[in-house]
Amino acid sequence: MTGALGTYLLSVAAVGLLVSLILSLLPEGPLRRSGTFVGSLLLILAVLSPLVKLDADTIAQAIARVRMEAREAVSGVETDNREILAAIIKEDCETYIWDKARDMGLVLEEVVVTVEEGVGYPYPTGVTITAGLAPAQQLALMEWIEETLGIPQEKQEWIAM
Length: 161
Known about the structure:
Elements: H1 2-25, H2 30-52, H3 56-75, H4 82-103, E1 108-116, E2 123-131, H5 135-149, E3 156-160
Parallel strand pairs: 2-3
Antiparallel strand pairs: 1-2
Helix pairs in contact: 1-2
């Protein structure tokens, strides 16, 4: 993380130095005003460049992690109980699927996520979805579930309405 921050700051500083060097070489007048405008745009792009690299799935995972930490903070205790943690993960995954389906314009009847509570951290292992979707819509949601939640397509059960 520190390496990425250092690279970011170095790139912003380099753009700033380059812009100031170019501006110092330009004569007063309309050319310098244009140069100032273009240089300002370049500096803004350098500062905002990390926003371009943001991924919606990464943001969603970070939000889910923050929500879980908030639940732990509100309860005043850490959720050491695997059953409670598994229930939270199950609920969050189901909500996540419902929200994505809604964003895709799909109507689902029921979503049930299964969570593995074995050794280590509980994680989603399967999903059963009841819906009346066209094959292309179902495939799009299946691929999203596999990419985002890590549930392979063979562990996704689809029940037609």
